[in-house]
Predict the structure.
Amino acid sequence: MSLDTTLDTNTEDLIAEARRQVEICNACRYCEGFCSVFPAMTRQKAFADGDITQLANLCHNCRGCYYSCQYTPPHEFALNLPAALAEVRQDSWERLVRPRRLARLFHTHGVALALGLVVGFALMFLAVSTMPPEDGEGFYAYLSHVAMVAIFLPAFVLPLVVAGVAVRDYWREIGAPRPAWRDFTVAMDRGARLKNLSGGQGQGCNFEREDRYTDARRWAHQAVMYGFLLCFASTSVATLMHYLLGMEAPYGPLALPKLLGVPGGILLTGGALWLAALKLRADPDLGAKRVWGGEMAFVLLLAFVAASGLALYWAGGTAALGTLLALHLGSVLVLFLLMPFTKMIHPMIRMAALVAEASQARRKAEGIGREPLAQT
């Protein structure tokens, strides 16, 4: 029995429409040289529900296929493959996390939810700071190190477990074969370079300017990705310095946590605001229109987390430090807690999709018979 029999009616309708469009595209094959979706599509003639979910998560919504297509409206086929795959992709993110209602709530009311939670947690941290620890410097003069660990460790680990379960369920749904180590290296290379955001042929993406190709969206994504990784590395290094070397914060401007965190914060802030600007210029009808607000809320939350962190760097020793710290900690806590329910889930599921695609491509090159991505 197929895993797909558990899908609800709305999911089945979205997949059925995406399947209709994919089958037309597979017959035409004009876009065969585009991103990873089209080579994967041409390896088969029939598509199970899990196959459509996999194709949707390979799609980076660059929209080049839409602007190259002769079957878009007003043609009777009415193809809008970027939007059809975006709806399936979005639905998969919402289905695979638990509880599902929270994911759907954020994606449809993201701005209000994120703003309310940030303000609420910031007020909580302000209240806690009125009872400061007996000793401590910098941030720890407002909230002890033990308290920070007690709050943020479970807020990071538990959502990460939820996200890991979602990735596991995604892998089961698409029915991918067991990957080889080389499949992970290929997927990591494509993910690190964001290869599919170059349109597959290196000419760039049509996301915000119709048939004008540009790498702006890829560069903005790379700024966000590498900025986030630098910030994460900064926190990780500071943790090791604290516990292994006994070197406690605050750190000087030339300390490794600052050398990693400041450039990371600048990249993350600039990249997130750039993505928001590109999103405002792009046609919402070529994506998952119903979650536009949730996507924008996530991008702005990332920007605020990074910008407030940079503000803390410059506010050290001033009267503004306590308020800025509360706002920053509140936004970081919201980002962590909502990680599986926002677009933060997409790098994890997309990496699984890239690994599955690398595995299928390798098997074809080695002459191994195709294993369907999803059982039918």
Remarks:
- DSSP finds 13 helices and no strands in the chain.
- Residues 3-93 form one domain.
